[in-house]
Amino acid sequence: MRGPHNIIRLIRMGATLERTGGMNVVLDAFQAPASLRIVAKLLGWPFKWLGLKGDPEMPSAVRALVALGPAYIKFGQVLSTRPDVVGDELAIQLRVLQDKLPPFSIEQAKEMVRTELGRPVEEVFSTFSEPVAAASIAQVHKAHLAETGEAVAVKVLRPGIEKRFGKDIDAFYFAARMVEIFAPGARRLRPREVIEHFEGVVRGELDFRLESSAAGEFAATTKTDQGFTVPQVKWEHSSRRVMTLGWVDGIPAGDVDAIDAAGHDRHALGERVLQLFLQHALRDGYFHADMHQGNLKINAEGEIVAYDFGIMGRIDEYTRRVYAEILFGFIRKDYRRVAEVHFEAGYVPADRDIDEFAQALRAVGEPIFGMDATRISMGRLLNYLFEVTERFGMETRTELILLQRTMVVVEGVARTLNPHINIWQVSQPIVEDYIKQSIGPKALARDLFKTARVLARFGPKLPQLAEAALIAQTNSGSGEGERKRTYLGPLLWASTGGVIALTAAAAMMAFLA
């Protein structure tokens, strides 16, 4: 229920940060100005006694987020991949949120497996270990199938997580509504729609049947990608709250020392993880949208192994082309074209000045080129981009939220592996290849052929549709109208058929050429 009672939850959030000592850590990490620090203290300190205590053994910021619940933990997971935004110290602290949270008991896990699979654990698995990883939504156990002896990973949903997550989201909706009321200038960011999108994504993460399906589809679309692999889903041992996958042996992508000790090329791995994400987003329109270090491993062959498919992103072909053109324009420093693409796609209101927008984009892009990546502050860059979007009245594109968020996360992972990586240089070959395939003569031929194929399906129905339209227009019953109806029906059908034939012929000729 999204009512004023959520004020208490928001106050408790500030109070928890204050009580655990996380308030100063967060404010320092974001280099908050003095005015914001004063407001935060005034809201947090008087209600400190309302704050959750958390686990004193944990670092202060981590302690606060874990105490507040799964939605806050998800936020911390994203920040853990951005040392350039929150600083190295806080990023390292937050990394434990990825897969090292306090587990629930093995007895609870076994009971969940028994209830979900309808069979005792001992009947399904010959071994079932203590938790080997625990995250915000679920935890993982290593087991062996009783029938074959194959090693598998059994993912079990945290008991009561659905109800607790619902309460967090409820408070977020209330906060979004308050922002819209008291900060009208922020309405263009559509905060409630952002929360709706976030809720839909994580609701899907709470149903392992959907995650199993996503894992199967992702494995199919990426099966030819060199240096990348996805574990196989064991459908007969999976359900809504239990998911079984083939076991993955490997080094966590965030364990830089172990990767070096194993003799893997970290710089090559950093480039590969970034390029793989772009390939999946642009080529397939289907990508892993939670690619933080806790969800990636490096196996003995040096391949990147992905798992945890609860959050997947999907973008349509038109949006992929727009996104690619924007990236390509930045890579070529063609800021005028980047501005044009924004206007053509409707991302910027048509009444704004395109030349001014191009100039603003140049101010964003130019500092990136020719610099060591370690000297670029992504925090300052994102802050400047926000100012540009506010100035030109751009609205939040909810369909691109996951894409933008994942791009930030993946860049953070790549920088962990290779601190000197330049996102634009690494992206260039992937984006250029996509541009060649999707924007040009062959792409036009494919589009025409697809259009002709769709129109051809309606061929048998077009005469009836034309007749019905003409009857509706000539209901007056005039003789002239009746004659028009009689003769125009076949003519419309003939002309439509001719258009279909010509379109198909043109498409085939262009394709063959």
Task: Describe the overall structure.
With 513 residues, the protein is α+β, with helices and mostly antiparallel strands. Among the domains are: 6-99, no CATH class; 248-439, no CATH class; 441-512. Helix content is 60%, strand content 9%. The strands form three sheets. It has a four-stranded antiparallel β-sheet with strand order 1-2-3-5. A four-stranded mixed β-sheet has the order 4-9-8-6. Strands 7-10 form a two-stranded antiparallel sheet. The longest helix is centred in the C-terminal third of the chain and has 34 residues, at 479-512. Residues 481-513 have low confidence and may be disordered. One of its GO terms (biological process) is ubiquinone biosynthetic process. Pathway: Cofactor biosynthesis; ubiquinone biosynthesis [regulation]. This is Putative ubiquinone biosynthesis protein UbiB. The chain crosses the membrane at residues 491-512. Belongs to the protein kinase superfamily. ADCK protein kinase family.
Offer a concise description of the structure.
The chain is α+β, with helices and mostly antiparallel strands.
Give the strand order of the largest sheet, numbering strands 1, 2, ... along the chain: 1-2-3-5
Strand percentage: 5-15%
- Average pLDDT works out at 79
Residue windows where pLDDT falls under 50 for at least 5 positions: 481-513
Fraction in helix: 55-70%
Radius of gyration: 27 Å
Structure classification: alpha+beta
Can you summarize the main beta sheet?
A: 4 strands, antiparallel
Number of strands: 10
Helical segment count: 24
Question: End-to-end distance, in Å?
Answer: 61 Å
Characterize the overall form.
globular
Pathway: Cofactor biosynthesis; ubiquinone biosynthesis [regulation]
Domain ABC1 atypical kinase-like: 97-342
Pfam family, one: ABC1
Protein name: Putative ubiquinone biosynthesis protein UbiB
